[in-house]
Amino acid sequence: MIDMQDAAYGYGAEPILSAMTLRLAPGSFHFLTGPSGSGKTTFLKLCYGELITTQGSLAIFGQDAATLNRDRIARTRQRIGVVHQDCEFLDHLPIAENIALPLTVAGRDMTQSVANLRELMAWVGLTSRASAHPPELSGGERQRAALARAIIMDPELILADEPTGNLDWDLSLRLLQLLCELNRMGKTIVIATHDLALIRAAKAQVQARVLRIAAGKLVAAGANL
Amino acid sequence: MSIPTEVIALLRGDAQADRIVPRAGQTARLTLAVSAAMAFLAVFALALSLATGRLADRWSQALAQSATIRLSAAEDQVEIQTRAILTVLRQTPGVAAARALSDDEQRALLAPWFGPDLPVDDLPVPRLIEIIEDDRGFDATGLRQRLAAEAPGAVLDDHTRWRRPLVAAADRLRLLGWVSMSLILGATAAMITLAAQASLASNLQVLRVMRLVGAQDSYIARAFVRRFTHRALSGAALGTGLGMLAIAVLPRAAQEGAFLTGLGFQGLAWLWPLTIPFLAAVTAFWATRLAALRTLKGLR
Questions:
Q1: CA distances from B273 to B121, B181, B284 (A)
Q2: ipTM (interface predicted TM)
Q3: Nearest to B212 among A75, A77, A92 (CB)
């Protein structure tokens, strides 16, 4: 799914990430952890093609990311769901339309997708908020909406960057539960977080691997919880 | 996506895709107003171009195929030399017809300056002989040489020195009209590019979200292009309509007894201004498309 071979990324002489060699297998669950500024977000951006490695190689779904043109990157992203801490939406559209945006972009027939959308909104607990606009939503609702948008295309890989950063503990657990359910459905999950309590909470639900990044290097990979 | 496919997609429209661009009031009004103003000016530039074109053609045609011989001679020589001149002209290739103007015709020509009661017989007014050329035209130098031998008092005026500056002036005016049209189109493109860039800059979040959810550049650009093309088309249609109305209600030159042809359109030429909204739309299409693709290049 994601295959890095001695991958590095950086500006000028100082690399942000270096010597990254790892493979994310289909259906696996990963926590990416490390202190702030260690390169977790950069790692995720490399995984969905927003950044291109400056050294080594990185393959996304078997395709060399460095050779993908902009259109192929866009098509590849339709197979990846991304959830950011500061999740961005189109503020002028209701949240239901925001969640359905990937379907619209992919040219899917919305009349056939309405049932899926309803089901998904119920799953993330946003049915009653369907017509609300993003600025009207709470932090937790925005995170759940971002997750719903990330998975509406039934992606094979879900990347979440500090998804619980703005949430209280209960909502964090609820979001984690949703991600674990997705993993049980066969999705590959990567969660970047420095919240060790969240990682411990996942222990009971999934078999996850912890990738620890420090000073731009992968210092521990494969530690099971 | 190729340009023709892009244009078809643009014309077909996509209500869902259109909704990704917020309806910002400022740039919408700016684009609409600029397009309307530019189209209004373009109608006048076009009218100027077409009117001066007609003027140049008219002067060119009216003066190109005619010439005049002025004969100044002693009283007893006038008739003799007139006959000699007419004989020379009959033998000159390129002359379709030639005739001496009557006293009444000469009086009529001088009337605007000297009044209707001018005693032509008592004044040393030269005899005028009108020449109509055929399509080939005549050799003015050769004719002058023959006239010098046969009728020493004759002077050939082939109107060239009058016609050339008039036609050149009219041609320059026509060119000026087209240059104005080009400048107006260029200014429209610049204005729409600025408005599109402002809109794109204020919608960077939209662009980021769209890229994140897998939208291709052409899809995102199309939403902006459609919005701006539609605004430019609507504004230009309004401006063109007002411009045509203003031209239509201009006072007729003939009514004022003016020499110059009226500034306006005649017959099928009224169809020309209708191309202005489409030109504005094409300009907006390209200006917005290039601005959108350039902005998107900055986002991965």
A1: 55, 11, 18
A2: 0.87
A3: A77
